[in-house]
Amino acid sequence: SQQGEEDPQALSIQEGENATMNCSYKTSINNLQWYRQNSGRGLVHLILIRSNEREKHSGRLRVTLDTSKKSSSLLITASRAADTASYFCATDAIGSGNTGKLIFGQGTTLQVKP
Amino acid sequence: KAGVTQTPRYLIKTRGQQVTLSCSPISGHRSVSWYQQTPGQGLQFLFEYFSETQRNKGNFPGRFSGRQFSNSRSEMNVSTLELGDSALYLCASTKSGIRTGELFFGEGSRLTVL
User: Fold this and answer.
1) Closest Cα to residue B31, out of B80, B86, B102?
2) Minimum CA–CA partner of A6 in chain B
3) Per residue in A12-27, pLDDT tens?
4) B60 touches chain A (CB under 8 A)
């Protein structure tokens, strides 16, 4: 498969706890993005991290990128019930016939219980 | 400003028919890309159009085609529908292209093939 992999596939936590999801990818990249999708709806962009960056923050979100391991993680701190959604990583891939294509991971489904 | 608009939101077709989906990007956005989302295959890149030219294409058969008009609106067409084409079709727009960052997604067109 050309797609990256995310783990866990599903995550259930209590409100107030932190949620961490991981994304691994297969090719070299220019950048990696994280998106959120509420059930059956469109995707909403959360954050973009470039290949020369190691960490980025946006509000309660923290993203790390390790290009040597071809992996990224998304941390959501102090989670809220409204964070319940599926989260996808997407890579701007380079090479192996993937240049110019956006490759999505399989997603992590997060449930935050009130 | 208005977001990305996709029409129709829901449609039902039978095998062998064809379907045309429409996407109106955010004003000023010249790139429109299309994605197919299914439970089994996840989110897969179909193609990207920029200023009426196809920039890149995913690994889909020739039954899947698209075009972009001078006002940046885009259509995708699927001919000779198969059961496996049942999916949520998402389009996204961005100013400069999918490689440069944040994509704005529409709510999708849910296609059911019977």
Assistant:
1) B102
2) B42
3) 999 999 999 999 998 8
4) no
